[in-house]
Specification:
single chain, alpha+beta, Uridine Diphospho-n-acetylenolpyruvylglucosamine Reductase, domain 2, Uridine Diphospho-n-acetylenolpyruvylglucosamine Reductase, domain 3, 6-stranded antiparallel beta sheet, 20 strands, 25% strand, globular
Length: 345
């Protein structure tokens, strides 16, 4: 088995979309299961803490960096396998997510088109049950191949095994740090219709039935208008995407808020529960688009995105995050949960 050489003091900020944080003490980019096993074996042998980094689109790295081994699996490859009544697409964890979506749309495979433009890698999508514009990856994932750190073996988890919920899975809750995603298999519908469930998309097509390509194009245009597509020339896109989850509360909590404020938006979220948009809570708590706090800020296009406005430190990002949470808690008695993973704090 190969004994990979670790790179030392590798800057992590450039490997993230938020562009903050210090270096990794050690860094490795394994390209196979054997290499991945070798990295873990050396880390355990030297008693080094480990963090697995994907595309860096959903993390906040501390200013001190990470005093251990940062592993960025680079397992790539895409296989398309026509099944009995669907088409199975298996992609390596290191594949660029949006390029995979583009490929699926080109092949007229429906099921992930509303997830166009989301930054990051395929391996990160099941961890957070990535979703946008009325679609989630859990709707099409049928299997996730993982390296099990406890048994030092490769396992195949079914959709049910993954325990998918809103922005959750076993990978970021009950079994956090146990599995490293290697490959994800999606079951997609050949010549299927795009999912038009999000208000902006419904309004854009006004009852017309778009093609998959038209739906993808519309999603990308909407995301660009909110600086949710990575663009080096757009400081609003130096973010970790939506920084907070939309809180799900009991209906009685919503009703209490609705008696105090006009036109409180909400969406049904299961029995006797509703989802309140975090963006509305944030703006209603006094944090408008374009707000600045030091060198961190809120996107001028989207109140859910905390941005690195001008060479911010991780500490400044955290300070703004905390201020927003405290203001929402004070005004609405609701705890806003962050979406990103915090590393090295």
């Amino acid at each position: 088995m190969p004994d990979l050489i670790f790179e030392e003091n590798v800057p992590l900020a450039p490997l993230t979309t938020l562009k903050v944080g210090g270096p990794a003490r050690y860094f490795a980019r394994p390209e196979s299961v054997d290499e991945l096993k070798a990295v873990f074996e050396r880390a355990y042998r030297e008693e080094l803490p480990v963090f697995v980094l994907g595309g860096g689109s959903n993390v906040v790295i501390s200013d001190a960096g990470f005093d251990g081994v940062v592993i960025q699996p680079n397992i790539i490859g895409v296989a398309v396998d026509p099944a009995s009544n669907a088409v199975n697409v298996t992609a390596g964890a290191g594949e660029n997510w949006d390029r995979l979506v583009e490929l699926c749309v080109e092949k007229k495979l429906a099921g992930v088109e509303a997830l166009s433009g989301i930054p990051g890698r395929v391996g990160g999508t099941p961890i957070q049950n990535v979703g946008a514009y009325g679609q989630e990856v859990s709707e099409t994932i049928i299997a996730v191949n993982c390296f099990d750190r406890e048994t030092n073996s490769v396992v195949r988890l079914s959709n049910a095994d993954c325990g998918f919920k809103y922005r959750e899975s076993i990978f970021n809750t009950t079994h956090r740090d146990r599995y490293v995603v290697l490959e994800v298999t999606f079951s997609l519908e050949l010549d299927g219709r795009p999912k038009i469930a999000y208000r902006d998309l419904i309004e854009r097509f006004e009852g017309r039935e778009p093609s998959l390509a038209q739906a993808r194009r519309a999603v990308l245009e909407i995301r660009r208008s909110k600086s949710m597509v990575i663009d080096e020339d757009d400081p609003n896109s130096r973010s970790a995407g939506s920084f907070f989850k939309n809180p799900i509360v009991e209906r009685s909590v919503y009703d209490a808020i609705a008696t105090r404020f006009d036109k409180v938006p909400m969406f049904p979220a299961g029995e006797n529960c509703v989802k309140i948009p975090a963006a509305w809570l944030i703006e209603s708590a006094g944090f408008q688009k374009g707000t600045r706090m030091g060198r961190a800020g809120i996107s001028s296009r989207h109140p859910l995105a905390i941005i690195n406005a001008d060479g911010a430190s991780a500490a400044e990002i955290i300070a703004l995050k905390t201020s927003i949470q405290e203001a929402v808690k004070e005004k609405f008695l609701i705890d806003l949960s962050p979406e990103p993973v915090f590393v090295g704090f």
